[in-house]
Design a protein that fits this description.
Elements lengths: L1 H17 L11 H55 L3 H50 L2 H41 L1 H33 L3 H49 L3 E6 L5 H11 L5 E3 L5 E6 L4 E5 L2 E5 L2 H17 L4 H67 L5 H32 L11 H41 L1
Antiparallel strand pairs: 1-3, 2-3, 4-5
Helix pairs in contact: 1-11, 2-3, 2-4, 3-4, 3-8, 4-11, 5-9, 5-10, 6-9, 8-9
Length: 506
């Protein structure tokens, strides 16, 4: 790619060097030509400044994402402390620190994203201004080449900004997906350790009982076995009643969790309606037509009301077998707010400025309202997740315990009926103890790994989401890097051509 662009630059230089007669636009006086060249040089300076700002904004966005991942590591440490501490006051301090860390992280990302959108818009305007001057004020043989480079830069800069926005959204979704189930996963891993510890204790007790039984005289073994069988049957019956109650609790908790999840993620009929002042309705309509997805964004026929209908957070949806990112209400309003802010900053005529400020306030109010709703729904989901996870673990634990009792009952029944020998049962019990010890050690490693990284994709904790998001982030990161490399090369190509034009005009 790089070598091809160098050949193009060299060819452009040779073409200009070999041209002895420069075809200038007709009908221009000396003063007009001089003024045009001055304006052309000013446009180049403006474009250079816009290029620098765009690169700075792109770098700031990348840095914000890096800081986001670093903050996630700190957040995981705070979650571990919250899970470990028994002191209510310390727990409250850690929880406040976690909230503050999350808020600061989101603000940094939001500002970086806003700056990137604004820098992209300024850069595109600078390119457009350069093209406008170019159409009348440079030799005709260079116009087509420069227009082509301008179009490529315009497309590349837009695609880079869009991909970086997509990357930011996916990183946020990844962090949230990993964080929202942290308490539940930690509880599950801890409960898994308890289950294996209980299983080990029971297996050791079973082994010791069998060894003790072997020392009992043969005529007494039948009575001892019968007593064991009766005791196990009674314990299984008692725990089965408990299991039924816990299973009902689990189902109720799942219903609450599903409702909370659907309200936040699958309910996509939330509506934001914003009035558009008459003084700017035409310009907003142009922005709406060129930039907003018409599946979720609507503008009334009289151009007076903008409406967004969709989910509150950005999320994924399946359309004809393809997974697509659907921008959420808050993110969409934030994007529109960036456009409106740029209009306010441009300091238009008083009537338009007042109208843009009114629209800015309306958007801000809508964002604040739905941010509060989002926070409430997120909190409800987090609490429902914790409760459901706990109830699920309780139900699973007692089911596993009943299975263990049933297995012990089967062994004692086989002995009682003379199907197996006591030595064979002891051998099986010893194998069971060894296997359970290994499972307990593995469960402890899983908890330790999760506490260090905040990530565990075993036992269906994350389904496909984490894996797909990580793959997508890696793919988009590569795409952005490739486009940035091409953007640098095309920019150098454009600079070389403009330098030739400037030299030719001297």
């Amino acid at each position: 790619m790089k070598r091809r662009h160098l050949y193009i630059i060299a060819a452009a230089m040779l073409t200009v060097t070999a041209t002895s007669c420069v075809e200038m636009p007709e009908g221009k006086g000396i003063d007009d030509v001089y003024t045009s060249r001055v304006d052309f040089i000013k446009a180049q300076t403006t474009l250079k400044a816009a290029e620098l700002k765009l690169k700075e904004a792109q770098t700031a966005t990348e840095n914000a994402r890096t800081m986001q991942m670093e903050a996630n590591v700190k957040a995981q440490d705070l979650r571990n402390k919250i899970a470990d501490t028994k002191n209510a006051q310390d727990k409250a301090v850690f929880e406040e620190q976690l909230k503050l860390l999350k808020a600061q992280d989101e603000i940094k990302l939001a500002w970086a994203q806003t700056d990137l959108v604004n820098a992209q818009r300024v850069y595109q305007q600078a390119l457009a201004n350069l093209e406008l001057l170019t159409k009348n004020d440079i030799p005709l043989q260079y116009q087509s080449k420069l227009f082509g480079l301008k179009d490529r830069l315009n497309t590349l800069s837009y695609n880079i900004s869009q991909k970086q926005s997509d990357l930011t959204g996916k990183n946020l979704l990844l962090v949230f997906t990993m964080a929202k189930d942290t308490a539940g996963i930690a509880n599950s891993l801890n409960d898994n350790i308890k289950v294996w510890q209980n299983t080990l204790d029971n297996s050791i007790e079973q082994l010791n009982s069998l060894k003790a039984l072997k020392t009992v005289p043969a005529e007494e073994q039948k009575n001892a076995l019968k007593a064991k069988i009766d005791a196990l049957n009674a314990e299984i019956a008692t725990n089965t009643i408990k299991a039924n109650i816990l299973e009902n609790n689990r189902r109720e908790a799942y219903t609450t969790y599903s409702t909370a999840y659907n309200l936040l993620y699958t309910k996509c009929d939330y509506k934001a309606e914003i009035s558009i002042p008459n003084a700017i309705s035409g310009e907003f309509n142009t922005y709406f037509s060129n930039n907003l997805d018409k599946k979720f964004n609507f503008l009334s026929s009289d151009l007076k009301t903008y409406t967004f209908v969709g989910c509150i957070p950005s999320n994924w949806y399946n359309e004809n077998g393809n997974w697509n990112l659907r921008i959420g209400l808050i993110n969409q309003l934030n994007t529109i707010a960036s456009f409106v802010n740029s209009k306010v900053s441009a300091n238009p005529p008083a009537a338009e400025l007042d109208a843009w400020k009114i629209l800015k306030t309306s958007i801000s109010n809508a964002m604040n309202s739905y941010s509060a709703t989002s926070n409430e729904l997120s909190y409800n989901l987090q609490q429902a997740t914790i409760v459901h996870s706990a109830k699920n673990n309780e139900s699973n634990s007692i089911s596993k315990y009943i299975s263990l009792l049933t297995s012990n009952l089967s062994g004692y029944t086989s002995l009682y009926n003379g199907i197996t020998s006591i030595d064979a049962q002891i051998a099986n019990a010893e194998k069971s103890v060894a296997a359970t010890q290994a499972n307990l050690a593995g469960a402890k490693v899983s908890l330790d790994t999760f506490r260090k990284s905040g990530y565990n994709d075993n036992n269906n904790f994350y389904y496909f989401t984490i894996s797909d998001l990580r793959k997508s982030i890696t793919s988009i990161t590569t795409e952005v890097a490739d486009m940035q490399t091409e953007f640098e090369l095309v920019t150098k190509e454009k600079d070389a051509l403009i330098a030739l034009i400037n030299n030719q005009n001297k």
